[in-house]
Write a structure and sequence with these properties.
By secondary structure, the chain is an alpha/beta fold. Helix content is 32%, strand content 20%. It has one domain: TIM Barrel. The protein is built from 8 helices and 8 strands; from the N terminus they run βαβαβαβαββαβαβαα. An 8-stranded parallel beta sheet has the order 1-8-7-6-5-4-3-2. Bound molecules: 5-O-phosphono-D-xylulose and cobalt (II) ion (CO).
Length: 219
């Protein structure tokens, strides 16, 4: 089942409540929350405080994408603020296996993200335990960048492994996705589609989300 996860990073932070109420009028079930520390990536976004303040206003699944160094230090914070899925970067921690177990011990779904330069092979021993794999199709740090086509192969390989081994992880793609190029990610195997600027900078947010779901229905 294909789903869209609009990335709040491109929303108007003055108007978050209004954007969330617009999303409520669509089929969207997820919201993607990009946490950046100015260290793992060259940008600073928001942290658990903002996420916590949104929680009472929406039932959307909080898909928290941690672009922070040493994510193990902050797991409790991202559990307590209301995340449903906590995804960290393979490149950001020395002990990814124990971090996955830690996230799951709180009853949350655990995901790992790969930078464009990282290989899916580095993840192989972790895949059976993962709820989600996030393939970055831009260099993490900013919204509005161009999709890196070479990442399609990584998505395809992750789909093959998932099918062969009967694993449960959701394949998520993040970065440079638009309603005009989303089909190539879908056809490679992406199931959860992150889109930031294309959704929140659209003339009509609701129409744009509907456009994605119309495309999803064709698959
Ligand atoms: O994690 C990130 C960027 O690091 C993303 O989630 C972006 O926020 C996606 O934005 P667009 O590329 O869709 O504008
Ligand atoms: Co993201």
């Amino acid at each position: 089942m294909l789903e869209l996860a609009p990335s709040l990073l491109s929303a108007n932070f003055y108007n978050l409540k209004e954007d969330l109420s617009k999303l409520k009028k669509t089929d969207v079930k997820y919201i993607h929350l990009d946490v950046m520390d100015g260290n793992f990536v060259p940008n600073i976004s928001f942290g658990p405080g903002l996420i916590k303040s949104l929680r009472p206003y929406t039932d959307l699944i909080f898909d928290t994408h941690l672009m922070i160094e040493n994510p193990e230090k902050y797991v409790e914070d991202f559990v307590n603020c209301g995340s449903d899925i906590i995804t960290f970067h393979l490149e950001a921690t020395k002990h990814p296996h124990s971090l996955v177990q830690k996230i799951k011990s709180y009853g949350k779904k655990a995901g790992i993200s790969l930078n464009p330069s990282s290989l899916e092979q580095d993840l192989v021993y972790l895949l059976e335990d993962l709820d989600l794999v996030l393939v970055m199709s831009v260099n993490p740090g900013f919204g509005g960048q161009k999709f890196i086509d070479s990442q399609l192969n990584k998505i395809e390989n992750l789909r093959k492994i998932k099918e062969e081994k009967n694993y449960n992880y959701i394949i998520e793609v993040d970065g440079g996705i638009k309603s005009t190029n989303v089909t190539k990610a879908i056809e490679s195997g992406a199931e959860l589609i992150v889109s930031g600027s294309d959704v929140f900078k659209a003339e009509d947010l609701i129409d744009r989300v509907n456009e994605y779901y119309d495309i999803f229905k064709r698959y």
